[in-house]
Write a structure and sequence with these properties.
- The strands form 3 sheets. Strands 2, 5, 6, 8, 9, 10, 11 and 12 form an 8-stranded mixed sheet that branches. A two-stranded antiparallel sheet has the order 1-4.
- 44% of the residues are buried.
- The model is unreliable at 1-79, 85-125 and 362-384 (pLDDT under 50).
- The protein has helices at 5-8, 116-121, 156-163, 187-196, 237-241, 259-263, 265-274, 295-312, 327-355, 373-376, and strands spanning 48-49, 78-80, 85-86, 106-107, 134-135, 174-180, 204-205, 209-218, 221-230, 249-255, 282-288, 315-318.
- With 384 residues, it is α/β, with parallel strands linked by helices.
- The two termini are 39 Å apart.
- It binds guanosine-5'-triphosphate.
- Residues 183-189, 200-203, 205-206, 231-233, 288-289, 291-292, 320-322 line the site of guanosine-5'-triphosphate.
- It comes from Bos mutus grunniens (Wild yak).
- One of its GO terms (cellular component) is Golgi membrane.
- Residues 60-74, 364-377 have a biased composition (Basic and acidic residues).
- It is found in: Golgi apparatus membrane.
């Protein structure tokens, strides 16, 4: 069940707003071309934009004005059949949408598809990412008691590949991050704190899904995360779950002050994993609203969460969207782990395609295959 654009999209006063829902294939012919004004987070004209993601940059650089000299109206970075509306707002949609994946990536100037061969040889251009999105050393875990990897430096093959600029298409692809969890736990607040550095005290329920794209520079290589915010309300679960597929990272959020939301985390993770290949996703368990707890209460909540994180084979983090505590460090860790896996997978893909000779024969491998996080992952519950 998915909402139709005209049914869900409402003005601030609750009046239906005509027009298509960006990202909806049914309205594809009516959608404006993705916009890129050179100062956007996608960078220059050669960058790919998901269809319908009207991009006016991150607000730091000059914006293009219309013919009346007006500033463009602020756009949601990735609006996909969803809208945050005041509590109690209803969703009446009933159609299915395919999440816009890489298949719909377009050249942001011409709107034409970039042929695969050409895309792989493109070097990202445009402005560099902001300083706090530059990751040069491997970001540390929150606690060694529940972490996905204890190493504090990049994998040797990844460092070498980055130094030689041999990271294939990694810099041009997006890694998908899906954030799930009960309603009101603070998923949207966490994403907005990181992507926009804002915090809103008012609760507005997410309907369906929404996404943001964040550009990083990891070990000197451009890298982007597509961060999907999903609705926690049960009645929107069927919409949100359609977007779980193809995730490289699953973030299960719970409210540190509400133990029930921690108990529900396991179910959220199961639902998200069901839509993905086994072992394909990094899993994080994130306790939100850390500012509301202190001392013994905080320690107790964290101890319970660490226990569950180990059962879920997840990395644990406590954060506060209100104060911003640990938010940047957390997403840097997510980006570094996702980047490292992407580079290793790319190396592996390229080495196996080199081994493939005409007629499908495969030459026996002489050296070691590049190690992937999956192949290194222990089978026990703790992955540290
Ligand atoms: N004190 C405090 N409040 C927070 C924090 N994060 C979120 N909140 C508040 O918690 C409420 C819910 O936050 P949201 O981000 O809308 O929650 P959500 O998980 O996205 O909710 P759904 O969209 O319904 O799934 C809002 O009133 C926020 O202001 C935090 O770190 N500290």
């Amino acid at each position: 069940m998915v909402t139709s654009g005209s049914q869900v999209r409402k003005s601030l006063h609750g009046q239906p707003r005509p027009g298509p829902t960006p990202g909806c294939p049914d309205h594809a012919h009516q959608l404006p071309r993705p916009r890129c004004h050179g100062d956007c987070r996608f960078g220059s004209a050669s960058r790919s934009l998901p269809r319908g993601s009207g991009c006016y940059g991150d607000g730091r650089a000059g914006r293009r004005r219309d013919s009346f000299g007006r500033e463009p109206r602020p756009q949601r970075t990735g609006f996909v059949g969803s809208r945050r509306v005041p509590r109690g707002a209803r969703c009446h949609g009933d159609r299915g949408l395919d999440p816009p994946g890489l298949g719909s990536a377009r050249n942001c100037v011409s709107g034409r598809r970039i042929p695969g061969r050409m895309r792989s040889s493109l070097t990202p251009l445009g402005p560099s990412v902001s300083r706090d999105r530059v990751i040069s050393s491997f970001p540390k875990w929150y606690t060694p008691a529940a972490c996905l990897q204890l190493r504090e430096h990049f994998h040797g093959q990844v460092s070498t590949a980055c130094q030689r600029g041999n990271t294939g298409t990694v810099g041009l692809r997006l890694s998908k991050v899906v954030v799930v969890g009960d309603l009101y736990v603070g998923k949207t607040s966490l994403i907005h704190r990181f992507c926009k550095n804002v915090f809103d005290h008012d609760y507005k329920a997410t309907i369906g899904v929404d996404f943001e794209i964040e550009r990083f520079e990891v070990a000197g290589t451009p890298f982007s995360l597509q961060i999907w915010d999903t609705a926690g309300q049960e009645k929107f679960k069927c919409i949100a779950s359609a977007y779980y597929r193809g995730a490289q990272v699953i973030i299960t959020a719970f409210d540190l002050t509400d133990v029930q939301t921690l108990e529900h985390s396991r179910q959220w993770l199961e639902d998200a994993l069901r839509e993905n290949e086994p072992g394909a996703c990094f899993v994080f368990l994130v306790g939100t609203k850390k500012d509301l707890l202190s001392g013994a209460a905080c320690e107790q909540a964290e101890a319970e969460a660490v226990r569950l994180a180990n059962e879920m084979r997840a990395e644990y983090w406590s954060v506060s969207a209100k104060t911003g505590e640990n938010v940047k460090a957390f997403f840097s860790r997510v980006a570094a782990l996702a980047f490292e896996r992407s580079v290793l997978q790319d190396l592996e893909r390229r080495s196996s395609s080199l081994l493939q000779v005409g007629g499908g024969d495969v030459i026996r491998m002489e050296g070691r295959r590049p190690e992937t996080p999956d192949s290194r992952r222990p089978s026990g519950p703790s992955c540290c």
